[in-house]
Amino acid sequence: MTFRNITGTFDVLPDESQSDGSTVPGTSAWRHVERTVHDVMALFNMQEIRTPVLEPTELIARGVGQLTDIVSKEMFAFERGDTHYVLRPEVTAPVMRAYLQHHLQQRGGVQKLYYIGPCFRAERPQKGRYRQFHQFGSEIIGTPDPRADAETIAAMMAVYRALGVTDVRLRLNSLGDETTRPTYKNILREYLEPHAHQLSKASQERLRTNPLRILDTKDEKERALLAGAPLLVEHLGDDARAYYDEVKHCLRDLDISYAEDPFLVRGLDYYTHTTFELESPNLGAQSALAGGGRYDLLAEELGSSVRVPAVGFAAGFERLFLALAAEQVELPGAASPQAFLVALGDEAARRVLPLAHALRREGIRTGLDLKGRSMKAQMREANRQSAAFAVIIGDNELAAERAQVKRMDTGDQVEVPFSELARMLATGVLPTQA
Ligand code: AMP
Question: What residues flank ligand 1, with Cβ below 6 Å?
Answer without folding.
Answer: 90, 121, 123, 128-130, 133, 135, 267, 288-291, 314-316, 318-319
